[in-house]
Amino acid sequence: MKERSQNKWFFICLLLCIACAVFVFLARKIVLPFVLAAFLSYLLSPVVNLIRCFGVRKWAAVSAVFLVFALIVTILLIVFIPKIVNEFNVLLRNAPWYYEYIQNEFMFIVNRLEQTFPMFEKLHLFDLVQTKLTQSIANGFQSAFVFIKNFVSAFSLILIVPMLTFFLLMANERWSDIIIDIMPSDFSEVLLSIFYEVTSTLGNYIRGQICESLFIATAISIAMSVLGINFALFIGLGAGIANLIPYLGSITGATIACIIALVQYQDFSIIFKIIPCFVIIQFIDNHAVQPLVIGPFVNLSPPAIIFALLAGAQVFGIIGMIFAVPTMAIIKSIFFLLVEKYKEARIS
Amino acid sequence: MIKQLLRTIFMDRQFKDDIEFFKGVYLFNGLSERHLAQIVTQINKKKYKTGEIIFSKGDQAQVIYIVKHGVVKLQMENNERVINSSDFFGDMALVSGHKRTFDAAVVRDSEIYLLYVVRLRNLMKANGKICFQIMSNIFEEIFSKQNVSEL
Fold it and tell me: What domains does chain B contain, in order, with CATH numbers?
């Protein structure tokens, strides 16, 4: 009897998870505000908990945290937005020039190559790569534009996200209590462990990623301005945001910095200053900042992480890439919990 | 007057009551109010109906149960123990990988706090005082039980 009922629960849970996943996939175009709100609420919830320890009502604690956070963000925006917009404008104005420079440089390399290895001439390497490059750059710009447009389509987003965050923070523990109350009592221990697994994995990941990105953004901005490279703030910000995506992020940041510096100095030696900078900052991040803020958290093997990244990019785009790894970690831990429960049911 | 008003507006009565309640629980004896508040933020609540089985022998132990009100009966072969309000059971869950050695069933409609051990363990890891107090409380309990059986 017991085995039957446990099996039943296992499959019901599995079906529910699959149904949720399918639904989220179908509604993926409207997921963004919820994701951002979840990000913010996970970032702020420890602070809210800390304030609640003084016996303050929840709404008061949430409001206080909210106000302070909004104030900090506004100040940061007021200080940094004009600078970043300015840098971005200059960069956009100079973009054709950058493109031309890269083209010339590349043509020079191809010519040299064709001189030394005449057999390459038949391949029309330059034309081939140029068309590919133009295409991919155009595509990249387009997708980035669409992403930004979706992002900002969104004056409403500015209103929706704080509201959602507020309610998520308010409802924080209530929903888990409600679910535990509804479910049969022999299931409450598994439920509790699943809740813990989900909230702690997501929370640690999000808090860790935000701290890390902040660290990388400031460190790289400072390093780039020390090296005297243009658009230091822009590069730092880009690297910080890109760092949300494991593996890929750090490489992207370094590449952008290298291209900008190369055009500015017209000299390859600058690369040997930039790359060590990035490597050192990444090293500090991996060995000092990461253990401090997240600890040894994602126990996934690199192939699994890369698979999750690519799959996330395929299904959800950039947001999918950011959330691929914690989702994978959650699925893994829930799977093992359920398998454990299943085995236990079979034994008894 | 104004202070009183502010207190009613901003202070969480439920939260205070929970802390007051936990002060009377043996497991958390000697913990300061601040530490108790930290524990209260980690806790879940569930209502049980008469006759419901909370857990049975051989289940994986992951939760410590603290009875807010109601009556719970623990059964281990011939031994029997009745748990009343502001008492706790299942604390051996703190030992990781522990399996339940007894059955627990609700005798009268109850409201029970559920404390997931990993959360408590994290608190204990982070805060030496909480760890020491809870450990010594558990030791004392085990010790007193041993004495009884020796007699």
Answer: 2-150 (2.60.120.10)
Percent of chain B exceeding pLDDT 90 equals: 11
**Nearest Cα to A240, choosing from A271, A272, A218?**
A218
Q: Would residue A296 be called left, alpha or beta, if left means φ above 0 and alpha means ψ between -120 and 50 degrees?
A: beta
Q: ipTM of this predicted complex?
A: 0.82
Nearest CB to A52; choose among B41, B63, B114? B41
Q: Are strands B79-83 and B103-116 parallel, antiparallel or unpaired?
A: unpaired
Reading the block at residue A249, the tokens are: 């992020």
Q: Cβ–Cβ contacts within 10 Å for residue B128, how many?
A: 9
Element (H, E) at B11: none
User: Which has the closest alpha carbon to B62: A34, A344, A316?
Assistant: A344
Residues A67, A165 contacting (CB under 8 angstroms): no
Domain of A30, in residue numbers: 2-347
C-alpha–C-alpha distance, residues A320 and A307, integer Å: 12
Interface size A-B, in CB pairs within 8 Å, comes to 74
Check residue B65 and give its pLDDT: 92
What is the C-alpha to C-alpha distance for residues B57 and B101, in angstroms, rounded to an integer? 5
Tell the burial category of B98 from Cβ atoms under 10 Å away from its Cβ (0-12, 13-18, 19+): middle
**With bands split at pLDDT 50, 70 and 90, how would you rate the model's confidence at B132?**
very high
Those residues whose C-beta lies under 8 Å from the C-beta of residue A235, and which sit 6 or more positions away, are A220, A221, A224, A229, A253, A256, A257, A260
Digit-coded pLDDT (tens) for A227-277:
888 778 888 888 888 888 777 777 888 888 888 887 777 777 788 888 888
Angle at A58 between CA B22 and CA B68, to 5 degrees: 25
pTM, full prediction: 0.74
H helix runs in A228-269, sequence order: 232-242, 248-265
Q: How far apart are CA A162 and CA B29, in angstroms?
A: 41
Give the torsion through C-alpha atoms of A159, A163, A166, A169, to 10 deg: -110
Tell me how many domains chain A contains.
Answer: 1
Interface of B with A (CB under 8 A): 9-12, 15-16, 19, 34, 37-38, 41, 44-48, 52-56, 58-60, 62-63, 114, 116, 118-119
Which residues of A are less than 8 Å from B41 in CB distance?
49, 52-53, 173
Residues of chain A neighbouring B47 (CB-CB closer than 8 A): 181
Which of B38, B45, B58 is opposite residue A177, by nearest beta carbon?
A: B45
